[in-house]
Design goal:
The complex is a heterodimer of chains A (114) and B (113). By secondary structure, chain A is mainly beta. In chain A, 0% of the residues lie in helices and 53% in strands. Chain B is mainly β and 113 residues long. In chain B, 0% of the residues lie in helices and 59% in strands. Classes of the chains: A mainly beta (114), B mainly beta (113).
Chain lengths: 114, 113
Amino acid sequence: DVKVTQSSRYLVKRTGEKVFLECVQDMDHENMFWYRQDPGLGLRLIYFSYDVKMKEKGDIPEGYSVSREKKERFSLILESASTNQTSMYLCASSFMDRRNYGYTFGSGTRLTVV
Amino acid sequence: KQEVTQIPAALSVPEGENLVLNCSFTDSAIYNLQWFRQDPGKGLTSLLLIQSSQREQTSGRLNASLDKSSGRSTLYIAASQPGDSATYLCAVIGETSGSRLTFGEGTQLTVNP
């Protein structure tokens, strides 16, 4: 069964910590995405990548960075965690062929910053 | 800018009822539309993908239709069960949006035993 795997289901971090959220896919997808989901705000795109070492800013990149050193792995980095980054983080991947294929999402990481 | 709207925002039905969830989008230039299910505190599970050239897709008790020209999609759930209780999201990939998905706000479905 094809999968997008997020390394942690729940994380609790302290304000100011550097936080790494990891995502791995086994479908040989070119595209990978990081979203955050908040009540009343829906899903918002943080960053995406369409190839190794390539990245594009989404709608809310401030306070985040990403790394894609290998095709199957896409990391989201919170350089200095703040309480307003408490959220559900969702990773997704897809083929470059947008016409014929959809997205696959991971199970999410619930991050709490205290 | 593409906007996706889902109606109703919440729906509560008795078990066994057939139901329809609605999704509308403002820009009909899309590659495909995808329906997802999300259980509380979990990620998104893909239910159905409809390519822009297709009119409908079926999977078990689920049937999704697409009317691209009018900017509408429906998700039909037959013989609903309590296990169908979840939030249902539709999302589109536009022809000019790169690989970005544009999501609706979702419909929260409760099926009562």
